[in-house]
TrEMBL record:
<comment type="similarity">
    <text>Belongs to the bacterial reverse transcriptase family.</text>
</comment>
<feature type="domain" description="Reverse transcriptase N-terminal">
    <location>
        <begin position="18"/>
        <end position="99"/>
    </location>
</feature>
<dbReference type="Pfam" id="PF13655">
    <property type="entry name" value="RVT_N"/>
</dbReference>
<dbReference type="InterPro" id="IPR051083">
    <property type="entry name" value="GrpII_Intron_Splice-Mob/Def"/>
</dbReference>
<protein>
    <recommendedName>
        <fullName>Reverse transcriptase N-terminal domain-containing protein</fullName>
    </recommendedName>
</protein>
<dbReference type="InterPro" id="IPR025960">
    <property type="entry name" value="RVT_N"/>
</dbReference>
Amino acid sequence: MTTAVKPLFGASSKVASWDAIDWHAIKQQVQRLQMRIAKAARERRWGKVQALQWLLTHAFSARLLAVRRVTQNSGRNTAGVDGVVWKTAARKLMAARSLQRRGYRPQPLRRIYIPKKNGKLRPLGSPLCPTAPSKRSICWVWNR
């Protein structure tokens, strides 16, 4: 007799549509895993903490929830450093599927110093210049 195997944390990367996702179940599953991590940390079971953190970072449910939170917060209409805004359900689902831990390379920061009131300088890390013409003026100010 065969039984259907429930995917890890209830979500499969083969989700048909963004609107068909049971968000209540997804939230409960991610929250349950977070609680298990907290409990293991309280008990000082560091190997268990590490294993559970690995599960959380690789779970498709966590990626779905992350994309949902980003697309529903107050900055949802602001493009990221790649200039992309996820507005449609298809793009949100594609974003959740494309999130991976490997291959991510953060943009380097440029260290500039700004004056403080007491005359000393304070370091400030800012991303390297964007290539969009509308933001070129910012680059000119930074590169003085």
